[in-house]
Amino acid sequence: MAGTVTLTAGLLLTSPQPASAANLVKNPGFETAGGDGMPYCWERSGWGDNDFTFTTTADAHTGTKAMKVELTRRVDGDRKALITESAECAPTVATGKQYDLGLWYKSTTPDTSVTLFRHDTTAGWQYWTDLKTLDMAATWTKATVRTPEVPAGTDRITWGVSVYGTGSATTDDYTMEQVPDTLPPPACTGTAKECADGRWDVLPTKNPVRSMHSVVLNNGKVLLIAGSGNSEEQFKAGTFTSAVYDPATGTYKVIPTPKDMFCAGHVQLQDGRVLVISGNKAYPAADGSHGYEGFKDSYVFDPVTETYTKTNDLNDGHWYPSATILGNGDVISFGGLREDSTGSVTAELFSQREQQWQPLWKVHQTWSYWGLYPSMILMQDGRLFYSGSHVFGNNIPGTGSAIYDYDANTVTQVPGLQRKDERDQSASVLLPPAQDQRVLTLGGGNIDSNPDANRLTDVIDLKQPDPAYTPGPLLPQGTVDLGNGPQPETGGQGKMYVSAVLLPDGKVLETGGALHNRANPVYESSLYDPQSGTFDPVAADPEARGYHSSAFLLPDGRVMATGDNPGNGTWNHNVSIYTPPYLLKGPRPTITSLIDSEWTYGDTQRITVDRPIAKAELIRPAAVTHSSDPNQRFVDLPLSVDGNNVDLNVTSNPNLAPPGWYMLFAVDANGVPSVARWVHLQGPAALAATDASTHVHAFADAPSGKVTGPSARRASQPVSPTVSGCDRHYGSANVCVPTVFPPQVKPTTAARCSWLRQNHYGTLKVNGADDPLRLDRDRDGTACGRGDLTRR
């Protein structure tokens, strides 16, 4: 945070250099002296362990003065000369407007960035964003960049050049001008309701496989992984499937699949191939002797050949593992169930350089059990934020959320997550843009106790020194059928199995879900606006989307939704497509040329567009399952605009945009996006080649929660065979009779059997002699038969 310098008239050595009629910067050329050795309306700022000087130099672009900021030693942090954070000096801005910033500079270091702060009328001054990395320049060079739209509640901004590597940046002649409005109001091209709420269409062709994993490939196709598809019959037959869907033709291609990748982990590698982690070795035994088992195998799927290739083995089995790509291209994985059905406490690391899983002794271990599909989101400094979203049962001990530091090998608890043991199959997403470092967690339930799923949302700002979740707005309610026909939800009823999808206009679509463990689908969708912190209900997917469903963004800006696997073992093969309101607002901008699809960190990349745009961004393609996609992110690309030529400024920090293929969208002032173009963001080797470093900020640098380091080495964490919330005394392995029925169901045989009939369970064989739910009162081996309902 920049400091504040209080000035008095007596400190001014000459008359203040005013801002021109168009230029909003006062004293833009440093010609007017001020206090504390700085020019009028400018102040020193920065942080970290470094040696530095601020010099008003005669080596000016125009006039007699310029500002030189130099670092002679640096461990971390930055230094910058900023426009003074005061009502007198900081330029006034208007909500929703954009501003073109310009300056002249010379630089002896590649480690510089144009950095903005904004004044929130409630919260005060705070960091806003980094805009542009400046190339090294021995002679005076002009740099321009456009701000994002000014967020609501912001009345002033300040900015300057951060120096975060050894060397100097000398700057002069700053300018700031408001961008004029360029677009007419949007023209609705659908019905009034569609233009307000969007539209869902169910595709005529069904998904041929029981896929619960959806990965958008760098050719625009979608990999849909089923494995055995949660079907014990297919598992026993060795029938493991995947399919590749082509949105351009609406066709599917079934792909030979070498192993049961049911409930595996997955992530796109730097080159666009898909790393698939573990899967299902065995279904639970009816006698309770073991639960699901995870195998050690791992595979890579190639989008070009559409084939799987085996990697070396993991150190442990991981059924339901996490998978997070790091800023250096490595992949880290936690949690899941081992080959003996116990919980894995082994952290796994896949080396991008070596293209293989590292041996156990090379990987830092805390021997922590993170549960199943723990949502581990990469932070801007390389640490991982465990959001508290997970699958099955209770959360981890403590507060249910934490910051994991791989280098220090520590776990720090993060407070504030509401009802942390009822966030089973909630969704968490790094909000747009990734530079803001804010995470939204929404919905959830608990299959162990099976209450009504909740409406809770929580938001955390990881830019704060001591971050903590704060309550967000309640999820909008939809309709649900509890046996009396579709009815509006009431009270605190919300949903688990929820999907959250980042959209190119900067909003988040939340959709799908169910009220109870694999039952009672909720029909509701809404758009969350990170700027206003509000939900706007929109059209609901007409298809049930509960357990084993997923929704994800396509390159054309629409959203695809698949799956649903209720407790009776059936599967919904229908596929829905959501057309958001922004596609019904008139013509779309088009990226008419892309100079280069190979990008490196800190680059400036040029595109041409056919009409004015307000912003551009990279969106990492989806790799989603069970409400979880911790790698989903929206990375802002600040603009420098010259007519239809737009220069895009790429972050220098690979932790904000891990290496790989991204969808590039250009978006106009009405929020209408182009069709995406694919670009390949290179790994940190590009940084090493130019001796540059990342611009990491001092965010979340003083968390006060309980800190734990490595515990004693152990083999595993005990996990109940009923971890999935299913009582295996009844039916086959792919049928889930809940261990605890929803609260609306009375604890009687008649009420439970009535609920099972309403949910189409059919005839259920009793496995063994035990009948814990009292469904086989006449002991004929069949649950909920006529004799069971008449017997007292």
TrEMBL record:
Residues 241-569 form the Glyoxal oxidase N-terminal domain. It holds the Pfam family Glyoxal_oxid_N. Residues 702-724, 767-792 are annotated as: Disordered. Residues 1-21 form the signal peptide. InterPro entries: Gal_Oxase/kelch_b-propeller, Gal_Oxidase_central_sf, Glyoxal_oxidase_N, GO-like_E_set, Ig-like_fold, Ig_E-set. Residues 588-680 form the Galactose oxidase-like Early set domain. Gene3D superfamilies: Galactose oxidase/kelch, beta-propeller, Galactose-binding domain-like, Immunoglobulins. Keywords: Signal. Residues 771-781 have a biased composition (Basic and acidic residues). PANTHER family: LOW QUALITY PROTEIN: ALDEHYDE OXIDASE GLOX-LIKE, SECRETED PROTEIN-RELATED. This is Galactose oxidase-like domain-containing protein. The lineage of its organism: Bacteria, Bacillati, Actinomycetota, Actinomycetes, Kitasatosporales.
